[in-house]
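Researcher: I'm comparing several assemblies side by side, and this is the next one on my list. It has 632 residues spread over two chains. Same procedure as the others: predict the full complex and return the structure.
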Amino acid sequence: MTAVEPRPAGPLAELTRRLTALGGLEVRGGGATRGAVTVRTLSEALEQATHALAAAPGARLADMFADRDARGVTTLRLVWACGPGYLVTEAEIGGDEYPPLSDIAPAAFVEECEIYEQFGIRPGGGKPLNRVMLPPHAGADFPRLGHAPSRPPVEMHAPHTVAGQAFEFPFGPVRQVGTESLYYGLVTSGEELVDLYLFTWHKHRGVEWRLRGKTPREAVFFAERAEGLSAVATGLAFAAAAEAALGVEPPPQAARTRAVALELERLYNHAAAMAALCASTGLTVGQSAAEIALERLLRLNAAAFGHRYLFGVVSPGGIGRALDAGALRRDLPGAYGELRRAADALLATNSFLDRLEATGKLTAEQARRLGLVGPVARATGLPVDARLAGPAPGPYAAHPVVVITEDAGDVLARFRVMLGEAAESVRLIGEFLDAGTGTARAELPETGGSGLGWAESPRGEVLAWVALDEGGRVTRARLRPGSVRNWRGFDDACRSQNVFTDIPIIEASFWLTVAGTAR
Amino acid sequence: MPLWFARGLRRGVVTTRYPDRPEPAAALLPTPPAFRPSLLTAQVAERLVQACPSAALRLSEAAMIFDAGACTACGRCAEAAPHAVAASGEWELATTARSALIKEIPLAGEARQ
């Protein structure tokens, strides 16, 4: 077991200095470790600090969440990605209102809505807050992290008519076989999509609420189910947060084993996204080819770790399932070769590429403003990747990832990014195996603390923040899967000169989950 | 399109012959636990119930109730009491009656106090 002290460096150190210079601020030594720094601010300085961080080059608002302690005091925390590392600002909120931070950093809006639903506090200014997480039947006695808002959130709606010509086409929440529950409100003039809104709360399971009172090893079982298709990344972010809170570092062999699982998760998800792209473009033989590759990758997961979807691989302090490195070395080239052959054939199919090119376009500016992550952001040219943030020392510090980016911002760019990342994952897995993997696990002390953890899932950066009481049990755990960020870019992508039949193609290229958002 | 037609024909049928023939890939799946009743004392059962994250185990007067419908085959019970629990290897669990998934395993020794 090794305790690691926070050592802010580079842009992170510069921002910490700037925040301290704003006055009334305090840098806390304890708490988040390994590449993350926590700065406690007075609530009066929150707006000013947010202005400073939003204007700082290279700083990105990655998350915002609240916490209510035993005294009934609500604390607001903002997580900023700053170069390689993260900065957490926290401020106690007196009363039921705080400054309207989404006016300063637009990426905060969805979180403002979530905080209102869970804690009943809202940004000043009276702006309408949408229902995003809790279902409409959630009354005052519904399990919440704080208390119910005084008034229910408003239902999200797009304009129902545009110059008297558009109408709303409801679609979902029950859709075709195997697809998650999601309600689309499509506003159309007949062919072109004018506007779109989503109801994402159908799959709310109160995961963050359920984590309270559990030990980190009990809680990771629930954390990884917040977004099952990112079980490794979500579990890893949660475990890293708990380890940071306890000042524990996993053994290097275990850290590399986790990284192997993380890259296997990326491989099978990108294969699944490719199959979904073929299905959405009506290319059934291509879909079958991609699904053959997907099935081989899932079987590879089972052979390597004993679970097709890699559940239970990550355990706080180390690893929960042993890796069969021999099986992985033996079967990975064949499974990846299957994926590559299908991808090469798709890249030579004009009718497929025509549907992808210039569809669902996003610009780098849109991605930056909305705080998008993962392949969606990287396809606009933004090199956003949580693997670049460490922790150092860690598997990705010794084996740096080559971040794949494209500039076009359309579905084709996202597809190319995914293919490039699949190749990069295979390279990284080989390096991790050569460096040595293992099942050693660090002991977790039964003590208190708080910490931030992160991981790069197939759909982007996953963040977790964990606070533990003196007995080492969770008092508050925040999970922020990549899907939470990227759904907010989905409607922008759909509105950009697209028609009805483009929507499934755009959805496949985003490859998000509703469960991760509703969690 | 002719490219894909030819590819499809060349690749042929890749689906397995299950259920006419055994499915080898099933050996890789995690499976629900099997309990050894002779070693399932009240103390061991208590430990297993505590270890189960999905509430698939509970205690009655003189038995442990196992609900395979709530089990995720996570293996935490086998980790908590490896001498009394092992993976069953059973994965064909489908049934038309929910009650068929619930099993009562008598506790070894005296009834729980």
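Model: For your comparison table: The CA atoms of residues 328 and 349 of chain A lie 31 Å apart.
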